Task: inverse folding
């Protein structure tokens, strides 16, 4: 058992840092939860060690006794044990009551409404995330996918919805998870404390490619965030050179345009992710591949091998078309 | 036909050898295939149930190993996404519906009539029917897996993923119909157990003298009766949504996706206690026997069992802490989920007190109890963690929860179960299992289990969600996952060694005798294995430890007929004799009724009209089942 405790500590020390860890947190809420986890771990460890020690003492008291038949318990020792059992039961009740109160206050703290600096809608699809930056002024609203940029130190409010099946939004370094349920809207609030990139992924089983439904939350400085936001509001980059122009034409005329939207082109589908600023995102296909021209070409050539069962069909392209299309998409910064 | 005999043969008219001969003739199961298919002997059916359930355990274990192969490293391609989703769905459904619940009920089918001192279970034909239906449900699920059309929506089958729009093919229908099979059989057994325990106890076995295992099965049976109808409503509604276009779960038409989760977990949480409470009974039995004294705090233990059973229905929402329910409701379910730690704690303390005061005999069953305590307490404590709403938002649907419930289910139920097999194997077969191999089995299972599942807590906190078929290398989960997969082989070797010991001991185990452990309960008052009629004369009980009162003398009743199958009915509270009741003879009709029901239920996956024309054969077989055959039992 000591082995367990040691290996636990060793693993926790070296292993829990990471961009998707509930113990390496970078938001007010996540940190509060991490403290709560450590508190519970501490209390539970003490209880477990106590019970195990008592058990071992009970076993050590006597080695294998000869079988001298059943015995009738002595009344005095029964009374003494009854007192101890009663005390232990009261202690148990005390511990669970305190833990209940602690978690009750934690919930209240986490859900206390601060004025949100940013209001986003996240809609889960099989198997990607659509992110809408809401604003009272319609010209300030924009849509992106699978990557959320937020300013550091501000309260972020998410409205969670689902387009098809149930998903769950979970970025453990920032805060706990919340489900996205068709026909309902849930909310989640977090306040990032540190600039950085944090990974999250869908936590509710949502079908074939549940494993490939991740997202990034990029926490920027206020200035960087504003710069990024203005970039996202702008229409897509105009193609440079004949290859990219061919690529744009292909995108508009092939099947691509019926599912995807690119602002500034005639492609205005809404079934798939908005690709207006595709190349500004770190990953394509909800965290499946790092964004670069090669990975985009690979995805276009055969999306079903990289993420089997996803809703993007294989569109027939010859080598030249593939080249042009990937050049165009890789330039959509 | 003994019906034509002119005079009733009472057991008081016969000397012991003649009585045993007469009883054996009355209660026997004929040899050959006909006997196999038509028997209603609870011991034969119970044994069958246990063996079948362990076969499903082994199959489910193979699935677990497949998953561990896939997850041993990042981006491995042992299984495709589709196959992996089938495998984890099968693993969960198989272990819950085809192994854990049936095996616990199976142990009770075998043991409860013996422990209460009766000759057969109540409604023995229903018992036979329930086994055949359970077998059919298991075959349905595994045949679907073999045909690559196994359910792939998780053992919880959340809508809308399992609904008509997203769950293509017949996969979710097969899952839902498998539920029907296993739930009907579980319900049947539960009712048999309640009636057996309430009305067939040996004279003098008042409620205050009922063995703790029997108490635990009584509470479990009530949980089954109250919880299973919910899942049947849920799965039937799902089938209706999928098959005839109702909209119970379709939000676009006024249905509700969360309704499914409420219904499922209203069953799903008591389900955990349906598995765990029988294990509690096994632990109490083993502790008493090997500490050579009655369990400390009998009344507290019984009340804890009942309290657990009641509370079990008040915590289903803790599976739904992240679906966005009102905070007040969530707080209520935090309190109820935490409070179940209290009866669990009381039981642990009472066992500790018993061990503390006892004179211990360190035999394999007791070693399993020790392994159980250490492991289960940890599972219980992580259960307290997931009961906290805010904490659960981080660990819900991660490997932390996978670790938690394996600690509870393997540590809390499988360890006691294997211990119970070591304990009751001599009663069931007449031979002891190997003490030396048994120690190795305990060691391998305990070490293998902890090395396999403890690291999963850490994986969960590191952000690894459940039910993912692969993960990218940059998540750095690879090392721990590899460690887990390698450790799983130790756990597997423990199970393999156990199966080897079972097979070996069947032939070569030393003869056990009637009561090899010097235990106190009635099943040890008859020979090992027990004769078809269980007891030549039904015992009379004067305390909670009948065989410890006066080890050489056991009072008995007489006056029961020996020439027809007859049981003694006693009063519910104080077990005073009330009536002699005839018990049905062997019959092929339960098997035929099960076949007819199977045809109807499986066909209904493909056409709703099967419920109409399929009902006709079911009706015919039921008429055959209940038609008087002119046997002496019919007079009863």
Result:
């Amino acid at each position: 058992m000591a082995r367990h405790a040691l290996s636990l500590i060793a693993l926790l020390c070296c292993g829990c840092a990471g961009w998707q860890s509930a113990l390496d947190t970078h938001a007010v809420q996540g940190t509060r939860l991490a403290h709560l986890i450590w508190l519970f771990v501490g209390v539970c460890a003490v209880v477990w060690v106590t019970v195990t020690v008592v058990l071992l003492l009970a076993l050590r008291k006597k080695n294998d006794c000869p079988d001298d038949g059943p015995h009738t318990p002595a009344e005095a020792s029964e009374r003494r044990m009854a007192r101890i059992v009663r005390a232990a039961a009261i202690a148990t009740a005390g511990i669970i009551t305190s833990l209940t109160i602690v978690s009750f206050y934690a919930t209240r703290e986490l859900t206390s409404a601060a004025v949100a600096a940013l209001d986003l809608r996240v809609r889960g699809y099989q198997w990607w995330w659509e992110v809408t930056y809401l604003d009272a002024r319609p010209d300030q609203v924009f849509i992106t996918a699978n990557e959320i940029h937020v300013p550091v130190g501000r309260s972020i409010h998410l409205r969670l919805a689902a387009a098809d099946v149930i998903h769950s939004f979970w970025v453990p370094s920032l805060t706990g998870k919340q489900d996205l349920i068709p026909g309902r809207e849930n909310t989640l609030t977090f306040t990032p404390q540190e600039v950085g990139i944090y990974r999250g992924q869908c936590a509710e089983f949502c079908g074939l490619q549940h494993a490939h439904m991740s997202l990034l939350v990029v926490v920027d400085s206020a200035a960087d965030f504003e710069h990024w936001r203005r970039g996202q509001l702008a229409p897509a980059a105009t193609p440079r050179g004949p290859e990219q122009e061919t690529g744009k034409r292909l995108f508009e005329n092939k099947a691509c345009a019926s599912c995807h939207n690119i602002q500034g082109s005639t492609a205005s589908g809404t079934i798939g992710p908005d690709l207006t600023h595709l190349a500004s995102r770190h990953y394509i296909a909800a965290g499946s591949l790092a964004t670069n021209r090669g990975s985009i070409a690979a995805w276009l050539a055969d999306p079903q091998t990289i993420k089997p069962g996803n809703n993007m069909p294989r569109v027939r392209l010859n080598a030249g078309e593939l080249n042009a299309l990937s050049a165009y998409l890789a330039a959509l910064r | 036909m003994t019906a034509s005999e002119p005079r009733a043969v009472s057991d008081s008219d016969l000397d012991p050898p003649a009585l045993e001969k007469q009883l054996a003739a009355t209660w026997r199961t004929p040899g050959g295939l006909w006997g196999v298919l038509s028997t209603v002997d609870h011991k034969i059916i119970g044994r069958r149930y246990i063996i079948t359930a362990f076969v499903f355990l082994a199959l489910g274990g193979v699935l677990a190993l497949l998953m561990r192969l896939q997850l041993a490293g990042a981006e491995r391609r042992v299984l495709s996404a589709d196959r992996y989703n089938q495998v984890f769905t099968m693993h969960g459904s198989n272990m819950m519906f085809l192994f854990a619940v049936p095996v616990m009920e199976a142990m009770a089918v075998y043991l409860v009539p013996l422990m209460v001192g009766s000759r057969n279970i109540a409604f023995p034909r229903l018992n036979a029917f329930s086994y055949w239906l359970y077998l059919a449900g298991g075959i349905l699920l595994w045949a679907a897996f073999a045909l690559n059309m196994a359910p792939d929506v998780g053992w919880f089958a959340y809508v809308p993923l399992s609904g008509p729009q997203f769950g293509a093919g017949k996969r979710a229908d097969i899952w839902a119909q498998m539920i029907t099979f296993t739930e009907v059989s579980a319900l049947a057994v539960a009712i048999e157990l309640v009636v057996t325990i309430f009305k067939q106890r040996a004279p003098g076995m008042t409620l205050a003298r009922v063995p703790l295992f029997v108490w635990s099965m009584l509470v479990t049976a009530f949980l089954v009766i109250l919880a299973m109808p919910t899942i049947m409503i849920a799965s039937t509604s799902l089938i209706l949504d999928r098959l005839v276009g109702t909209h119970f779960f379709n939000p676009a038409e006024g249905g509700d996706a969360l309704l499914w989760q409420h219904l499922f977990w209203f069953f799903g949480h008591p389900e955990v206690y349906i598995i765990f409470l029988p294990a509690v009974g096994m632990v109490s039995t083993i502790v008493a026997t090997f500490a050579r004294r009655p369990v400390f705090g009998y009344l507290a233990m019984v009340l804890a069992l009942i309290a657990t059973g009641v509370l079990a229905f008040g915590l289903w929402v803790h599976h739904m802490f992240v679906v966005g329910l009102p905070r007040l409701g969530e707080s209520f379910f935090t309190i109820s989920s935490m409070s179940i730690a209290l009866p669990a704690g009381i039981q642990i303390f009472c066992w500790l007190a018993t061990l503390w005061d006892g004179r211990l005999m360190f035999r394999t069953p007791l070693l399993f109890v020790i392994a159980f305590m250490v492991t289960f307490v940890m599972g219980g404590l992580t259960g307290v963690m997931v009961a906290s709403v805010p904490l659960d938002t981080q660990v819900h649907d991660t490997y932390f929860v996978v670790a938690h419930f394996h600690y509870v289910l393997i540590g809390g139920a499988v360890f006691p179960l294997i211990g119970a097999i070591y304990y009751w194997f001599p009663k069931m077969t007449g031979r002891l299992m190997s003490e030396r191999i048994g120690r190795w089995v305990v060691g391998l299972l305990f070490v293998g289990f902890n090395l396999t599942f403890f690291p999963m807590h850490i994986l969960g906190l590191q952000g690894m969600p459940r039910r993912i078929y692969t993960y990218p290398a940059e998540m750095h989960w690879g090392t721990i996952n590899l460690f887990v997969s390698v450790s799983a082989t130790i756990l597997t070797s423990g199970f393999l060694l156990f199966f080897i010991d079972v097979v070996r001991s069947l032939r070569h185990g030393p003869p056990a005798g009637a009561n090899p452990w010097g235990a106190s309960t009635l099943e040890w008052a008859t020979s090992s294995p027990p004769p078809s009629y269980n007891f030549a004369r039904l015992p009379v009980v004067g305390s909670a430890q009948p065989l410890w009162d006066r080890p050489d003398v056991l009072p008995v009743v007489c006056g029961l007929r020996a020439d027809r199958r007859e049981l003694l009915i006693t009063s519910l509270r104080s077990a005073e004799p009330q009536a002699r009741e005839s018990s049905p003879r062997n019959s092929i009709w339960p098997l035929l009724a099960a076949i007819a029901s199977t045809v109807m239920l499986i066909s209904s996956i493909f056409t709703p009209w099967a419920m109409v024309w399929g009902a006709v054969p079911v009706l015919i077989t039921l008429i055959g089942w209940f038609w008087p055959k002119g046997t002496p039992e019919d007079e009863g």
Notes: Chain B touches chain A through 94 residues (CB under 8 Å).
